[in-house]
Amino acid sequence: MTETYNSAEYPRYRWLILVSAIIGYVTMQVTNLCLAPILPQVARDLAVNIGVATNLMTAFLLSGAVALFFAGAICDRFGILVVIIIGVTTAALPAALMPWLGGSYEAVLWARVVEGLSSGFLLSAMGPIIALWFPEREKGLAAGLMGASVSIGSAIGIIAGPAVFLATGSWRQMCAWLSLFGWLGLAFALILILVPHPDPPSKPEVLAPAEGKAYFKQAMALPLTRFGLIVAFFAGWCLQCLYGLIPGFLSAEKPLGAGFGPMVSGQMMLAVMIAGTIAPILAGILTDKVFKGNVKPVMVAGFGLYPVVIYAVGHLAAQTSVSLLLTALVLAGVAVQIVYPSLFVYIAKSYRPQVVGLMSGLWAGVAAIGGVIGLFLGGINVNSSGSYGMALTIIAFGGLPGLISSLALPRVRFDI
Predict the structure, then answer these.
(1) Pairwise CA distance, residues 14 & 133, whole Å
(2) Which of 46, 80, 339, 396 has the most Cβ atoms closer than 10 angstroms to its Cβ?
(3) pLDDT digits (tens, 9 = 90+) for 4-59
(4) Chain centroid to CA 383: how far?
């Protein structure tokens, strides 16, 4: 499969589409993580224990995973900007209403379920943006920029959440103020969809329902789909375990964790997120310029690096080697953030445009399930053993089957 780069075929409008998606991914992660650093205060205000309050984080992840299984079909049928608009609206509206909804734990939980739908709709757009709007030599860069925006949104959520909370004295007001990211994204996407604009250079034909089912069945029968779903599962496992379990390990007192406390733990994780912002952009450039569009070397490198550095995190924390520990954490952030965007480049290159959105949603949904299962198993182990030791092994484990399955991925082709 080859493409010829021609500026007439790939209009500058593609960069506006990319910016719209980037604002969406920042919104998604700000909404997702702004509560995480102040969860004890939220739990106290809602008169629930911290374990119950943790469900507010899980609800976001689970509803996003469910949405991914149908959002891709909506993207294929109605277009990229439609799912971006739905995504930023489902993130912003419940957050803006939180001053009125926040008096009841049940209402907040349902608000988080609705907010979580945003990740399903927004992530389903990543593959189609790469496939439909960017030429071969820019696909890796586009994926890298979108992957970087996820890390940027994560960092903003973790930093801005507590800052706005302290400034307003209310976590409900904090949610409402941070919903401004979503309203900005909504306004930008609405402008793009309402003004005259070009069609994507590789605009797919609209399929009849029977044709769509036939395409989907053929896609599911491909070996690349079977291996790819395994890769996606463990990519999500690695990503969510790193961001969901490692902060608690770093913060918890010894012998439960590393004993650095919440302040130092937050600073270390910020370094991880900064690395996760830079890494996917560099990986995209490597994919485009060095590997000539072949995303497999980048994916394999990420999975190969991950278990090594996660093992090192536990070993170096026990020795209190702070500088080396920080290095290992940064490399872990690099590893997960070069794997995840690479999935969508592979999807964009492997399927015909008619099913790219659907397959992007399916792969991302399986990745979300992998993240939920990894977090669940790690959390159970911490509770039962009273230590993060075995949980770190569980976290690292995800890199090994991910490495094996990524090596087994067939070369990119257009069988469907």
Answers:
(1) 6
(2) 339
(3) 445 456 788 999 999 999 999 999 999 988 887 787 788 889 998 766 777 888 78
(4) 26
Q: What is the pLDDT of residues 356-373, one digit of tens each?
A: 777 888 888 898 888 888
